[in-house]
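Open question from group meeting: does this chain pack into something compact, or does most of it stay loose? Before anyone orders reagents, we agreed to write out a predicted structure and look at it together. Recording both the input and the output here so the notebook holds the full record.
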Amino acid sequence: MSRDLLNQIQTMFPTFSKGQKYIARYIIEHYDKAAFMTASKLGNIVGVSESTVVRFASELGYDGYPQLQKALQEMIRSKLTSVQRIEVSTDVLGDGDILEKVLNSDIEKIRKTLAEVSREDFNNAVNSIVGARKVYIFGVRSSAALASFIGFYFNLILDNVSLIHTASDSELFEQILRLDPKDVVIGVSFPRYSTRTVKAMKYASARGATVISITDSSLSPLYRYSNYNLLAKSDMASFVDSLVAPLSLINALIVAVGMKRQDEVYRTFAELERIWDEYGVYEKPGAEK
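Structure tokens returned:
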């Protein structure tokens, strides 16, 4: 419904009460800001009561205002420009304690991720990674940090990992040219979604590889090409992408894969500790500078 929400509001506009028309007009003209307003704040801005806003949501077929708000957020999550994100974040965060508001927002995203992520997809993803001939990991722009984090730890516990580095479509396809059904491809992308990542997932799916997406929603363009979808909340209205919940989910994925290879992981890290100590990779506690 979220993709057609504005059309639905416009179609139903003549049937709304006077107060509901104020709400409808504001949402149509300022949906990017309305998506992050409480019912009370939206009502204050357009000059109607909070109960009128709630009844407006019911009139559209939602169980309550939070469902309407969620539909608006899903509709715009991949559409907001950086400038729009700055404008919205200013409205949402205000001039209060930014540190507290941002950290509490991230905590809530982790809670929602834990409640909504598919355990079946998570477990199947873990088993696919452990049993793969080769594991490819791909993420660009802000998601590149997440892809690199996965690649760093998977390279310590697996011997068949390839972190894809690419500056162009041609380089991308050159690195995944030999994909086959025995391989696993992990794609990471959050709003605004990377076209290059979507192309990689589409190609991997066409080649019969097992595709695992780490993204935020069933509306993500990665979702349709994936065998297993690991969804993590990342919907902060800001020019900065909130990657706390995705990183927490990735931590769980790495730990779960490591537990499947517990003996090998133990031997690997025992050898690494010996090498790190011999070559002074880490500063020893109490050592003089």
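Observations to bring back to the group:
The radius of gyration is 23 Å.
The domain at 2-76 is CATH 1.10.10.10 (Arc Repressor Mutant, subunit A).
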